[in-house]
Amino acid sequence: MKKLFANFSNKMRAPSSAPDSGGPTTAGYKVKKRKMENLHKAAWMGDVGKLRWHAMCNNDVNKVDKHNRTALHLACANGHAGVVDFLLSKQAKINLFDSQKRTALMKAVQCQNDLCVNILLENKADPDLMDADGNTALHLAAKIPSLSCVIMLVKKDADLNVKNLKGLSPLTMAVRGDHIAVTEFLLRKGADVNILDKHQRSPLMIAAANGQMDMVRMLLLFKADFTLMDNKGLSAEDHAVANGHRPCAFLITEHGTKRNQALSRAPAAVCDETIKFEPDHPNEALEAWEGPSTSKDGDAFT
C-alpha cells in the first residue's frame, strides 16, 4: 500500500518532460539545468563569458538539445539580448525550428522580450515562418497581445493576412481576444477587415457574438461588411441576437440604416470619410506607445 502511494506521489510531483505546453502563448521553456549541456546552459543563464570560451574552443553554436532548441532559442526565451548579439556574431542560424516548429523570433515574441525581437528582425529573421499550428510571430504577438512586437513585425513586412491551421489571421486573433489597440493598428496598416475563418466567420461576426461593443463599432468604422454570412447562413447581427447581445445587434442595424441613407445621398463623401475611432474605454497604447503592451487577455470566441 505504501509503495502504491509512493508511486502515485511521484507521478504527481514529476514535472512535464515537454519543452513547453505547445499553446500559442506559452512563454518560456521548461528546462532542467543540471541536464543541459554547457553551451545551452550558458545561453540560458546569459553568460556571455562562457559562450566566448565555447566559441574559442570551436564548439558549434548551432548545436541542438533533445528538444531541437539552439542556444539562440534559449537566450531569446530568457531575454538575454547580449547573448543573442554574441551568437549572431558567431554565425548562429537565425531561422532554425525547435521541436514545436518555433523559431528564436517566435520565442522572443512569446516571452515579450522586445530587445531580442528587434535584434533578430534587424538581422533578417523571417517573420512569416509558421509553427506546428500554422502561427507566425505576428499571430503570437496579436494573441498575447504585445502591441510593441506587432509594430516591429509589421515594420518588417510581416504578412498581415496569413492564416494559421484553424483559418485564423492575426487580426482575427486580436478580435477574439478583444484587443482594441492591436486590432486598430493592424487595420490601419491594411489588414483585411472582412477576412474569413474556416467557418466563413468574419471579425465582425466574432465581435458581435461576444458582445464586444467597442470592437463592433471600430470594425464598422473600418467598413466591415455587415451583410456577410457564415457557412450556417448567419450574419453578424444574427450572431449578436443568438448570443443575447441585442445592443450589438442594434448597433449593426443602425449602422446599416445610416450607411444606406448616406450612400443614397452622397456616396462620394461617404467613401472618402476619414476614420476616427473613439471607444468607450480608450486604449492609449496606440496613440503614445512607449513600450510593450502587458495585457494578456484570453480568447472569448471558440
From TrEMBL:
SMART domains: ANK. InterPro entries: Ankyrin_repeat_domain, Ankyrin_rpt, Ankyrin_rpt-contain_sf. It comes from the Eukaryota. The keyword Nucleus does not apply. The keyword Transferase does not apply. Residues 8-27, 281-302 are annotated as: Disordered. Keywords: ANK repeat. PANTHER family: ANKYRIN REPEAT DOMAIN 26, ANKYRIN REPEAT DOMAIN 36-RELATED. This is Ankyrin repeat domain-containing protein 7-like.
